[in-house]
Amino acid sequence: MSAKGLVTYRSAAASKVTLLDSLQTYPSILPKKLKKHKLYAGDYVSGQVVGDQFVIENIEERKNLLVRPPVANVDSVFVVMAMREPDFDSYLLDNFLAVFEYYAIEPIIVFNKIDLLDSPDILHHWQKIYEDVGYKTLAMSINDDIEPLKAFINGITIVAGPSGAGKSTMLSRLLGIELKTGEVNHKLKRGRHTTTAITLYPFDSSFVADTPGFSKVEATFFMESKEVHRYFKEFSRFSCKYPDCTHTTEPECGVKEAVLNGKIACERFKNYLKIMRYYWEELPC
Questions:
Q1: 3-state helix vs strand vs coil in the chain, percent to 5
Q2: CATH 2.40.50.140: does it fit domain 3-59?
Q3: CA distance linking residue 67 with residue 175, whole number of Å
Q4: What CATH superfamily is the domain 224-276?
Q5: Half-sphere exposure of 250 toward its Cβ, with a 13 Å CA cutoff?
Q6: Which 8-state DSSP code applies to residue 108?
Q7: Which CA distances in Å does 269 have to 141, 177, 226, 253?
Q8: What is the pLDDT of residues 16-69, one digit of tens each?
Q9: How buried is residue 73: exposed, middle or buried, by Cβ count under 10 Å (0-12/13-18/19+)?
Q10: Model's pTM, two decimal places?
């Protein structure tokens, strides 16, 4: 009898499938006829359990596929950003957010290690910026109650962010299992990469994935630069003279006017211009 499953482990050498009805996990085999269809963690598949292995017969059409990290069918993402060790990097966060908007994945921003801040003012400043845009945010320390996270887990949820931000520690506590974590290199002020293969862990009726940490993510690796403005979603609230305005060199730009009037956070627009490799002399921050 054919069964439905989810690819919950994928490395260069092997893959595993978890059956959706029983949550039993089997090493999987991709028959020669399907070899042309590359397999990813997060793929929904159907096939047969043969002995102690799962033989894949069909790979369902994907709704999205992240190139880096390679995960398919992602519904939501915890973007974990440390406030200290490593220092908070809004440029990296805005690149992450643009990429996840591009793939129609709901981001939840987790401001982590808030206990290392000298004052809560900096946290409140950044929370307000992103909540005003429309993003959901959480603020926590390493040992805080992780219950609030559970309400945001839906379908396939990944945990992403820079190396050393506390992703694996957070996920270990959430799942009740020990995941490998990396210390922050205090000289370089960034974490070491600890996640190589992609693993999806069952969580109630959903799945959660730990993913590699990145010290650098560029939105233009995933999309053309002329598309980036579409994924800073607050820009769509304002009208420009030209419908395809990139908010750089064009005249009568409603987005630039909104920045000058304080209706768009200057910090966000500064990061957008950095992505676009454009300098605007009138930028007020």
A1: 25, 25, 45
A2: yes
A3: 25
A4: Probable gtpase engc; domain 3 (1.10.40.50)
A5: 16
A6: E
A7: 28, 40, 15, 13
A8: 999 999 999 999 999 988 878 899 999 999 999 999 999 999 999 999 998 777
A9: buried
A10: 0.88
